Records
---
Amino acid sequence: MGRIVLVTGVSRYLGGQIARILAKDPSIDQVIGVDVIPPKVKLSQMQFVRADIRNPVIAKVLGEAGVDTVVHMGVIATPRQAGGRATMKEINVIGTMQLLAACQRTPSVKALVVKSSASVYGSGPKDPAMFTEEMQPRHTPRSGWAKDSVEVEGFVRGFARRRPDVAVTTLRFANIIGPGIDTAMTTYFSLPVIPTVLGFDARLQFIHEDDGLEFIKRAVLGSYAGTFNVAGSGILMLSQAIRRTGHKRVSLPEFLFMPVGRSISSAGLIDFTTEQVRYLTFGRVLDTSLAQTTFGHTPMYSTPQAFASFLARREVSVA
Amino acid sequence: MPNAKIIPIHGDDPIVPRLVADLEPDVMARLMEFWEFVQRRLAGDYSVDDFGFDPEFNDKVLMALVRPLYKSWFRVEASGLENVPDQTGALVVANHSGVIAFDAVMTQLALLDEHPAHRHLRMLGSDLVFQSPFLGEIARKAGHTLACHPDAERLLGDGEIVGVWPEGYKGIGKPFAERYKLQRFGRGGFVAAALRTKTPIIPTAIVGAEETYPMIANATVVARLLGLPYFPITPTFPLLGPLGLIPLPSKWFIHFGEPIHTDQFPENAADDPMLVFDLTDQVREQIQQTLYRLLMQRTSVFG
């Protein structure tokens, strides 16, 4: 008997990509994609269910299809994608709660893969140079996506306790970057003049989208329970990354950075949340040795290479 | 103007060829090299390690800035460099003094310039350093990181030379009257890190730093207002304003002492508080004795 995989958030880039990759895999019988809006690109070999994970209907979908693996890609990073912070929080937090409640009720579910974020570690001056999975944040995130991710991981841990028979894999990704994906980070590095916080230079880490998808795929196919940091090797300093874009950099004192950032953000250009600004001030680096040894896979792109791949797309689109 | 002189633009003029001759080939090569360096830096084409250490920027820019201070101002004499390993990790533990942590920077430069293997000293600093604008940024680029167990053990495990100043702010912010008296040595966290990674501890004594800024009083109210651990009053600061920031040109000695090996202890030695305290005391005692010995040998503060 083949496997039946349900993927949430398929109408966004990564969700759609992973659904396509899984649908091609011979060991998987059926892929069911779920999202509130229909996907922009036609997803072949896949069944699309237009459903809101905030709604108990999701339980019916899980039960009727006999889903054995749930891939939760439905955590939204920026308010712009959701249409406001309130909706974003609801999709992230209430959506995850409903989805996990449905999973708990469905006996056929045997594996859960959650795309989480390294932002759960927060960022600040008291951080160790590199975070390992068991470390607690020294500066607990208090807003935005980072806080949502912390709550989502909390629900996932609760679910893992209540359903010990389900293999739960939580992947904490560094900023995903590459030729196809659009995130707050890619928008930030596409600004003609890039604002930074005066007197600080953050250590940044990226993971290429192909590597990110590879880890999710391996998590689905191999079922490795646990929490893993996923990032490309090496780091880039913020100043160094900006130099590589060839754009201008303007350094603003901390007290000016937030108001200026917000005014750009209200113009719809970019999401400047407190957590994002803290990340651009202090940065964050993950120790990824656990994921590499467990999954037996080293990301193909290092952090500088992933960034170069993102820059290459931009040059093509300009030309 | 019928009598106007004709000035030849080329030919006999001896100045131009002489300039070109002077430039070639050595200076030209160095200029080109410098130009390439600037170009590469501006393009972001260099690599930093996971801690944010930028070896090229550190060696070619930061250390070049402080080198005159090391050579001409403090005339640092480093000894015992043979006690610092060439390849493997070690923990350099030294006394801290002199209001501004020049002693740490001079120790870093001593190991880079005078050690045969040109070792980089990776220091552990307080969170105050990393939360201050500019200071935190430069500290990261120079290879330093936050004083915490995971970072210390990671660096030592990677075979780096790690520097700690266990007296912390108690050391650099102490009054002049207490010079060369070692303050309390924290909780001995550095000893535990050395035990866990089985790396030797190198007790290091620095003489001369105490006299750079003789601190006669501590303006605690001002310090509290500015959120600083202390606010120094020296004979020249804040009396002479920015001029008071110029350190006195005392003569310095840095001695890297006999290493204390930690590999003969059992596996869980770091979890034995008694052993950790004993070792901490041994390190402290060895630094204090070396300080007295160096002070006895010293003929004059500014010699």
---
Amino acid sequence: MITIENFILITILSPLIVSVLTPFISNSTILRDFLGPIGGVISSWGAFNIMNSALNNQNINLEIVKIAEGISIGFEITPLGAIFGLVASFLWIFAAIYSVGYMRGNKEKNQTRFYAFYAIAVHAALCIAYAGDLLTLFIFYEVLTFSTYPLVTHKQNEMAQKAGRLYMSILVGSSVILLLPAIVWVWVATGSLEMSQNGVLDGKIDVAYAPLLLAMFVFGIGKAALMPIHKWLPAAMVAPTPVSALLHAVAVVKAGVFTMLIILTNIFGIDFLAKTGASEWLIWLASITLLATSIIAIFKDDLKARLAYSTISQLSYITLGGALATSMATQGAALHIITHAAGKITLFFVAGALYVGAKITKISDLNGHGKSASLIFLTFFIGSLSIIGVPPMAGSWSKFFLMLGAADSGYVVVIGVFCVSTVLNAFYLMEIPARAFFFKKEREVSVKIPILILIPTLITSFLTILLFFCIEPFQNLTSMMVGKI
Amino acid sequence: MIDILTKNLPILVVLCPLITSLFVVLIANIFFSWILTTLSTFLTFLFSILLYQEIQIQSHISYALGKWMPPIGIEYIIDKVAIIPIIIISGISFFATIFAYKIMPEEIEKKSISKVYSLWLLAIAGLLGLVTTGDAFNLFVFLEISSLASVALVAMGAQKNKQALVAAYNYLIIGAVGATLYVIGVGLLYGITGTLNMEDLTNRISDLNNNKALIAGFGFMIIGIMVKAAVFPLHIWLPRAYAYAPSAVSVLLAATATKASLYILARILFSVFENSEDLINNTLLYVILPLSIIAMFAGTIMAIYEKDIKRLLAHSSVAQIGYITLAFAIGTKASIAAGFIHMFNHAIIKGGLFIAITSLGFFIQKRVTINNLSGLGRAMPITFFCFVICSLSLAGLPLTAGFISKLYLIKATISSDAIWIAILILISSALSVVYLWKMIEVMWMREGRKIVIKENPAIYISLIIITFFNIYFGLDASLVVNGSFEAAEKLIGDLK
């Protein structure tokens, strides 16, 4: 019988082992390429077991390294962490298979390096998910930034260099200048780096300073991509699509909003936020980001750029849900982590498939290709419906909870924000299948989608439907997170 | 036998390099002079480790030189504070010596190599004497020994680049001014107290709270030491000296020289003058604090605009010294401890970086400037990897030693309700990522000339070891952290 402690180790270490082994077996392409998917299966097997134990309310604390008195790297299982960990490790399986199809189809250089850093990034994301204290969270937050730099700049050309600079300066700058002192502030105020389910700050910090501390966290967590520190995400789209799909639609950005939610619920505590109104300004900021980026997305003709802005907008749903500080909204926010992940990874998979299959990057070039690649556009359609929030797709659940939460909190305007954004989502996402299926073809291009790209895309789009029917365990976890069970 | 060894450890640490330096100069063979130097630095390192163990038992060792009892005779004091710079200096000297083997003959003609090693050991002996002595005048002697030896070492760079002579001359003049100021200060204090022993000074000063001569003496001493420690704006000798010295010498000086003076600074501020509280508090608040903050930014910004890598790292040292003096300026136990933590970590970081840069220069056979780094990341993966790790450590990113220093520094500032200082520190450290990333980017992104370089284990072995330390002390910092807290407690007691 494997203990839960060991499952944590299995889950977080398998991507690390994959990464370390990759350079040594780079001679055998087959072995190297399928190390990722195998690691993903092992890792998510661990993540499933961890989720089970979270559902049984087992309290697990695992200290790995004691750095010095009072600071250590340690892991624990929280309901939200269990969800994020499962999302990151499970989607890694498909992203890893997809990467092989993409990298081979595109004949990219330096594939070994790519796979190695890809796995490290997943490792960092999983460590964030199971982080037991603020310091561990911060450490792997930074590891995630640095491990994705070689992936963003994979092409090593001038454009990649520029994007890499923007990426690093925003993510490293914000986290070092604001997130770190905010964490240390909490450390000094409470005397420890621990987090607790109901927050740790109540009574430990002057209420007048709470909005300032929150602002340091919010702008320190650059990965959550709130305006005005969202620019790195569109810049990161210069990376190969598997990176955009798993990392910049799932692991990295979800690590950002995950951290945001953890800070809001486990450091401030939703009761404290509701009582003091410290997060009120965040509601407005998130709403503005949500709407503004949806509008920007409409005007982007580059498919990946449009998806990037759509991601920023969807991330703001999650931040907004946390900022509303009601249990319903927080549950919705947590569920949105998983539902948006499944939907958005599908959309990015399609964007990459079109690039590999027909070298199409612009939406205006898609006209009439629906017949030659109907399956791939169908998956895009399904993914889009989930993002928009149409039943029976997963996305409808999280939106439903978020709406309820907005109603609970008394901010009626926010319900309006959600509705307007839904319309905008439908507008900019539906254009793509619409062009593909209903517009006239302008030029003859044969679209050949490699099988290794098609299969993962089909599976993730199927997941968005499956999730609609299997949301219960996740919903149980989110209820536990807000203390309802 | 063992007993005699243990008893005499405080002096052996200084004598071992001092005596071997006299013999090394007699050996003509490059290899044997190197072996002897290595052996001597290894023994010194061993002695300091033994001393460290001894200190854990006794916590304060007073050694009367020649059995002349203090305060009349010269006293050597080893306590939990002094042991930190002793370990840093002896450890780094050992690794720098190993590293020097391949590099030294590249830059210095064969017949003068043994002289260089002799000066090298002399400089080390001077630095170690500086931190072990408990006598204010003896300290001046060691200050001069270490300075003159380092000046001569810097001047040796002239065989490669004549600029080194100017750098050495600058260093000599400014260093001499600093030492003179210090000795004037000591003279004034001797005039009013009649003693040179530092512990004795502390006791006698307590009756003379507002004595003008005391204040003047203090001022002279502090400024003299600040010159040696390269505290902004008295750092102008440093960038040139580091840039034009022979590479191995840059490694040695960058990692050790200023550390000894910073330790003396802490000792004067918090131990010798501990009874003149107003004087110290005013100095900390109105002199050291603002200067440190300016140093943090001036050093970093100069580094961003610098093209020559060795100078760039030297400017970055000015900023890093700023962090250490800033930690002293805040003046709480936690912050002084943070200063010592960073003193240790900065030694292994800068040591690593200088070794990495020197190795790069060794292979490209050119002055190392930003543009010359193109494509080296691919040509020299091991050196590049170590360089990246040490850079991340300098920027204070997690899982490295530099992060630990930054964390404790930030915590100490926030605990003293100075969150704005914490933010300033972090802005400056985020800016340091700019110049570090500039180098990494060039090595990583740009296509270089197609050169096939075979990395040489004799060169990268010490780099790998120091890089390993950068990671190890980022994961298991309790040794450094506890040591520094004990040192801080010893310095300022439980008062604050």
